[in-house]
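Standup, Tuesday
Yesterday: got the pipeline producing structure tokens again.
Today: sanity-check two examples.
Blockers: none.

Example 1:
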Amino acid sequence: MKNRNQTVCVIGLGYVGLPLAVQCALNGYRVFGLENDKEKNILINNGKSPIKEEFLETNLPNVKIKATHDPKVIRKSDVIIMCVPTPVDDNFYPDLGPVKNATLAIVRNFNPGQLVVIESTINPGVCEEIIEPIFAEAGYTVGKDYDLAHCPERINPGDPKWNVTNIPRVVGSFSKKGLRRAVEFYESVINAPIMPMKSIREAEATKIVENSFRDINIAFVNELAKSFDVLGIDVVDVIKGASTKPFAFMAHWPSRGIGGHCIPVDPYYLIERAKASGFDHEFLKTARKVNNSMPEYTVELLQDALNDLKIALNGTTVGLLGISYKANIADLRESPALKIIKFLKKHKANVLVFDPHVRKHSTVKSLEDLLRKSTALILATNHREFLEIDPALFKKHGIKVIIDGMNVLDKEKIQKHGIIYKGIGH
């Protein structure tokens, strides 16, 4: 194959890095994966995916990826792609430590002429203000000794249609040569348009804008859900009605909160970077505040419903249906369910958890066991297994209240069984 003489090193073999490493191998590149998790490396080297994902489970056994924790593999690589996490701390302040450490690893194992691509989500200015200076301090000049580009990751775990093979991408670089190299590389592995940006800052800003857009719109409907609940209006029906307009409206849906590593994290990178330059993102901060409030609001709905039955939340056994942040995957990153558990325990409720996709974090062995022991339920994740439950089963086990954190259960059928149902504005 045309890429057989080129070697790629992917730093970080998580939800972003591992699919990309597999896709590079499928397209003829020799691939190293640099990952600190030794158990994960063993699985990958044996052709087994540590992540439950159809693309990986289908293709990883058919390619050869050398996964290791030894950074010396960087020296053997022509293209280095950084896919390390960019989290926020407990105070929502961006933590660029993983990016800095990965950059230092590259510099310490540098070979002239390498193309370094940052896929990790970063705020505008990180490549110029943090990454490039680390190379410069070591004596390497961008555009001369190496090329540096940014291609913000786009991944949607569990999506049957859009994955690493076909999602369009944007690329920015410091120079025309670096931009050309990066675009040609991604065109060689991805079957989708690759859009070159005028600057590396534009590329950095693109991902932040994408996820801030979603955060703002979700915050809007979450606030509507709270408002319409007081007004006695079903926000889900209203959104469906508004969606009949064929232009200038895009439906977003309220829920128990936002999870994943992108939407609840990325806006903070722009908020803090703009703040450092003297600009205050009031709108973004308000959206984050609204969305961060939803797990507690979900628990408040339960407390109100129990109060109607003259049952105290204190001492009541509450069953949590799902703990992952998204349906039909095993990803706990920033999951609102974890915050719901925290607030339930704050009110001294007895909390039971069942998630068929994350059994090691389940506190009961089966759904039947959860229902048998619970007085009330909160649906925190819309796994397909939960959508298939016959409401008669809730009645059989004496469930008195159901809080539908995703607005996906059959409200009328549940209520027909004499069970109190509350959705998020629904």
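Example 2:
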Amino acid sequence: MSTSHAEHLELRPPRVEEVSAGIFAYIQPDGSWFLNNTGFLVGRRGVVSIDTTSTERRTRAYLEAIARVTSQPVRTLVNTHHHGDRTHGNCLLPAATIIGHPRCREEILATPLPPPAGLWTHVDWGELHPEPPFVTFEDRLSVWVDDLRVELHAAPTPAHTTNDVVAWIPDRSVLFTGDLLFVGGTPFVPMGSVQGSLRALEWLRSFGAQTLVPGHGPVSTPAAIDPVESYLHFVQDTAARGKAAGLSPLELARQTDLGPFANLTDPERIVGNLHRAYAELDGAEPGAAINTPAALLDMVAYNGGQPLRCLA
């Protein structure tokens, strides 16, 4: 099954929003699989980019959007975690210093590019190759844009992944959350932790940010954290009932009414999230390895055996 050109045309084009002077969010509708948000900060001598995008075409469009704002080069690139929607485009910024968590580097080097066929509808990934961070930090690092400090903080626990990083600009009360926060989309935590994600949401609140640029979805306020928290509690409660009934994650997902979460994009993620929740009920620590390929294949099965919709 391939994705039609008409389906791509249904999407609104990416947009640039100046969320504070010299600080820009790059929003890619509709925020579903591999359609992430990025951002950039413009200084007198260069640009700091928060992530890239998933395909060559989309990353080149992102770089063109930056060039319409400034003629300064991208000197620094921060990866908020290792997933391909954040890092596939790294190789298109050869002059940039790439910064990320050590596990981000490890995971990029261990992850196939392009992704395995058959999981998502056809995507033209372009001419890309893995390019991991070559400056890594464990806890906290400051990057400067002229005299504006950008604090990079590693999440206190595995959450969306084992290597989540946020970018906090305290003088402007702006927080780039990476995929610790989805707005309008289903959270996805099989490679991290349900419980860890709940802890990470409390950690996001602790910054006191007025403006949050989520990993997917529109620029938001801290109120956007609440629905994500509710969904994760829903996953935990559903998993506890299903495991007690002896159901597999896929069987349980098929019997579950998503209720208020049914209209979130990519609802099939409930299956992968239940895989992680089951592992945690069995005592797995946040970030412990689970059978991620099996979880992904179960999501395809939940989707009627069809590849998952991806308009990247």
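Quick observation on example 2: The first strand starts at residue 15 and ends at 20. The longest helix spans residues 225-244.
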